[in-house]
Amino acid sequence: MTYSGAVQVGGPADVHELQDLMISKVAVGAMNNNAYLLRCRATDEQLLVDAANEAHTLLTLIGDDGIGSVVTTHQHGDHWQALEEVVAATGARTYAGREDAEGIPVPTDVLVDDGDTIAFGRITLTARHLVGHTPGSIALVYDDPHGHPHVFTGDCLFPGGVGNTWKDPERFARLIGDVEAKIFGTLPDETWVYPGHGGDTTLGAERPHLAEWRTRGW
Prior knowledge:
By secondary structure, this protein is α/β, with parallel strands linked by helices. It is built from five helices and 15 strands. The radius of gyration is 16 Å and the shape is globular.
């Protein structure tokens, strides 16, 4: 079936099958958070992006093969409600942005800086540090050698705009600046965007609106 990225809490995962990587997206919790299970097709090793909520749902998705790593995109509580239980059940290594780790109550094994890589199986993700929604938010870029890039943006980029900066002009300027420079400035229009809530998008769909976002201030 064709992947759409449209998922609902309590519903099934939607699976994006790439040549080297399988991406399973599921919605969990009262805030309709997205969690993404990434599976290397060559080795079956797995990594979870945001153990947001509903540990049972996530552990069922993970299955008997387990996971080696969990990456938390940022420190906001709706993105780590299931982290402690998932780590306890799987023994996974935890990753988070250096500036956000203190705000996550589960210890972070690996502090992530801009440009750091996270590998599992034969898959490599590159972290991009994006400031403004939180001090240490990270996006994860998978540069598919057989196609276009894929980026997991947490709450820093959505269809229709950047993440919430609570009407703080300085935070907004920093976030949109980072998103423009490190995401739109380095990745092509075909790049698929997987946000922390709601539906997916592409950079090509959003790029024409960057000036509009700057003008409106959110």
